[in-house]
């Protein structure tokens, strides 16, 4: 977990906004940024965002719910949300963990995701839900 980034503290209630400001979420981050990572799946490699993890009840939409668009593909389990005006990915409900949202660390107000070192890359090409053991 990461409690501050480049000297900027992660607030227990931290705001997340899209680029144009239409969509604002409040994230409950009592443990800071948990499990930040990138992913190499067909979707994530295109957006290249650093994604953090929260339980579903840790995101509250402050404004712009009507501006959020939903994108689903392939198995259509995951729900990828983005601002319909500026196109920025804000958060998504995971396929691998439907009890979690991933969120765009770069949308956390005041946080520079490039200052987070050694962000791991998940092997989304070989998705855990596709692995047959
Ligand atoms: Zn926007």
From TrEMBL:
Keywords: Lyase, Metal-binding, Zinc. InterPro entries: CENP-V-like (IPR052355), CENP-V/GFA (IPR006913), Mss4-like_sf (IPR011057). It comes from the Bacteria. It comes from Rubrivivax gelatinosus (strain NBRC 100245 / IL144). The keyword Magnesium does not apply. Belongs to the Gfa family. Residues 14-130 form the CENP-V/GFA domain. Gene3D superfamilies: 2.170.150.70. GO terms for molecular function: carbon-sulfur lyase activity; metal ion binding. This is Putative lyase. PROSITE patterns: CENP_V_GFA.
């Amino acid at each position: 977990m990461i409690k501050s980034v480049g000297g900027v503290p992660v607030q227990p209630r931290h705001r997340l906004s899209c680029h144009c400001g239409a969509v604002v979420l409040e994230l409950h981050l009592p443990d800071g940024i948990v499990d930040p990572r990138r992913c190499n799946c067909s979707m994530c490699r295109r957006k290249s965002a650093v994604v953090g993890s929260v339980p579903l009840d840790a995101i509250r939409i402050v404004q712009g719910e009507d501006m959020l668009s939903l994108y689903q593909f392939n198995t259509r389990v995951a729900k990828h949300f983005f601002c319909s005006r500026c196109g920025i990915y804000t958060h998504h409900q995971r396929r691998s963990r439907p009890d979690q949202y991933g969120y765009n660390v770069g949308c956390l107000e005041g946080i520079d995701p490039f200052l987070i070192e050694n962000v791991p890359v998940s092997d989304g090409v070989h998705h855990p839900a596709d692995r047959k053991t």
